[in-house]
Amino acid sequence: MNSVEAALGDSHQKMVVTGFGPFQGFPINPSGVIADALDGTSAFGLDLAGGTLETSWQRAWPALRTLVDEHRPIGLVMMGAAPDSFFRFEVRAHNAFWAEHDIDGVCPRASNSSSLVSGAPWTYGTTLPIAELRTVLRFGSPGTPSSSCSFLFPRPKPGFGVRTSSDAGRFICNQVYYLALHQLRELVPYIGFIHVPSLASHDPERRGKLVRFSRYLIERIALTLLLKELGLFRPAVAEVRQEGVAT
Question: Does 240 have pLDDT greater than 50?
Fold first, then answer.
């Protein structure tokens, strides 16, 4: 048992990690593979509860809300797949959607506003402590990104880059991310979303690398949350700002 776990004792705090099931272009969704692999494990004293959401406009959010109500976690990290070669920490969710068909064949009707929640804020920022996460990973000091997708870690580990992004898209990834930030902020202190690289249907080696690297990131997120809860970060740690929005 390390010093952080000893300080926590038998708190049994939890972090929920979710991914998505298959959808068009992703017959095997790596985010769901990762969430399933992490389910029932632990990271620095946090019990991890993983779950796979259907890529459905109508079913994904209720399933996520059920997971949160069941586990009452300190942190919620949602994941989805993107056609990139790197991991993307999404620092912003938008109150908007695209009229795009889901796995059920459902396509939401677009309107002049096309907002997810009428009258709600246009955007919410992640409540994950990104600046403190940088410190834990010891990849440099917090800075001010100059574009909408910038390197979170100047020297990413071999195999996968890790970046921050201010645009989670307008599909179901953004939907559940926005609704979580809109409805669960008082219940779950730390909420974030990560887009993970795509996965070929028959590539067990890459699948293993994705799962291992994802576990590495989730463990570091867990450690960051626990250190923050224990008050072990200096107040001088700077905020990370993305296009003028504090995260």
Answer: no
Rounded to the nearest integer, the mean pLDDT of the chain is 82
Question: For residues 16 and 78, is the Cβ–Cβ distance under 8 A?
Answer: no
Helix (H, G, I), strand (E, B) or coil at 136: helix
Task: Give the residue-averaged pLDDT of 11-34.
Answer: 89
Give backbone dihedrals phi and psi of 121, rounded to 5 degrees, phi first.
-55, 150
- For 149-157, the CB contacts below 8 A with 24+ separation are 149/88, 152/89, 156/86, 157/213, 157/216
Strands (E), the chain: 14-20, 42-43, 46-53, 75-82, 86-90, 92-94, 123-125, 149-151, 161-165, 190-197, 241-242, 245-246
Higher pLDDT, 179 or 111: 179
Q: What is the pLDDT of residue 138?
A: 61
Q: Which pair of tokens denotes residue 64?
A: 């996520």
Domain ranges of the chain: 3-246
CATH of domain 3-246: 3.40.630.20
Amino acid identity at 5: E
CA distance 173 to 61: 10
Residue 139: count other Cβ atoms within 10 Å of its Cβ: 16
Q: 51: how many CB neighbours lie within 10 A of its CB?
A: 21
The predicted structure's pLDDT at residue 6: 52
Place of tokens 């632990």: 42
